[in-house]
């Protein structure tokens, strides 16, 4: 019990000392900058794959608040109706540059959590950020595509085997499990590679599990709150969707930073040392 109280007090202390709230706002800004270039790239790429745009949007819709989703869909439909051959290259360049700025902010946040200085050169540090960005983009595409293909495969197998209800329920649950595992893999890689510190995978799994569960629960809870109790649209008018999107990104950024802080606290406890600040 005492250990739990010590852990909670240390997390609260780090929340203030490491300015988690400010860092979360910074991440929300970079997430917003990289969102639409990434979506331009993703949906332009989808033109070469046998996947409907609505199927992919339905996957995002599971987590995103309705007003934020309306804003995203409106912009995506506009872009897809006015697309040209340059959008794919513009989308990938814009997404990588904006998202790598966000990853760079995450690297700085994790270095601060572990109390280490960035000893890598600017080129090396930015290279790590860009590589992590490409890795996350690839995993996000796979995370979006797998459920879509999974649905198609599930319907095909159910028709072939002559069963529908129970099989489709099990298959739907399996798709959620796959999405969970992909998210867990993304966060594990982020917590392992981003800090300028040699770590073992076992040392980052607690934070990755916290971030995965925390992000899913927070996204679903915030979506429910916005749809049931909030009135951002009536308060901010046409800006309501952007405000909701920014708050969702802010909460997501906070979950990511807190996961890194959690790993750092656990490491201090394993080594039996206290943070000196």
UniProtKB/TrEMBL annotation:
One of its GO terms (cellular component) is plasma membrane. This is YihY/virulence factor BrkB family protein. InterPro entries: Virul_fac_BrkB. It is a multi-pass membrane protein. It comes from Anoxybacteroides rupiense. Keywords: Cell membrane, Membrane, Transmembrane, Transmembrane helix. The chain crosses the membrane at residues 27-51, 87-110, 122-146, 153-171, 177-194, 206-226, 238-266. It is found in: Cell membrane. The keyword Membrane applies. The keyword GTP-binding does not apply. PANTHER family: INNER MEMBRANE PROTEIN YHJD (PTHR30213), UPF0761 MEMBRANE PROTEIN YIHY (PTHR30213:SF0). Pfam families: Virul_fac_BrkB (PF03631).
């Amino acid at each position: 019990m005492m250990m739990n109280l010590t852990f909670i007090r240390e997390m609260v202390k780090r929340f203030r000392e490491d300015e988690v709230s400010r860092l979360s706002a910074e991440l929300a800004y970079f997430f917003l900058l990289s969102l639409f270039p990434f979506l331009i790239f993703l949906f332009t790429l989808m033109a070469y794959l046998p996947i409907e745009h609505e199927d992919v949007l339905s996957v995002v819709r599971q987590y995103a608040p309705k007003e934020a989703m309306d804003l995203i869909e409106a912009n995506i439909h506009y872009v897809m109706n006015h697309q040209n051959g340059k959008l794919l290259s513009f989308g990938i360049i814009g997404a990588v540059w904006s998202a790598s700025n966000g990853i760079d902010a995450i690297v700085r946040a994790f270095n601060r959590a572990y109390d280490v200085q960035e000893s890598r050169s600017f080129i090396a540090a930015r290279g790590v950020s860009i590589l992590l960005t490409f890795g996350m983009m690839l995993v996000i595409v796979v995370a979006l595509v797998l459920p879509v293909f999974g649905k198609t495969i599930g319907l095909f197998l159910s028709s072939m085997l002559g069963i529908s209800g129970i099989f489709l329920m099990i298959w739907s649950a399996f798709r959620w499990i796959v999405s969970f595992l992909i998210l867990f893999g993304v966060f594990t890689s982020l917590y392992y590679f981003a800090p300028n510190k040699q770590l073992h995978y076992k040392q980052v799994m607690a934070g990755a599990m916290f971030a995965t569960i925390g992000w899913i629960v927070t996204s679903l809870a915030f979506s429910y709150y916005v749809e049931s109790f909030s009135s951002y649209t009536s308060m901010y008018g046409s800006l309501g969707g952007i405000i909701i999107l920014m708050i969702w990104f802010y909460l997501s950024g906070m979950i990511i930073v807190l996961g890194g802080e959690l790993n750092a606290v656990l490491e201090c406890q394993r080594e039996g040392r206290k943070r000196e600040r």
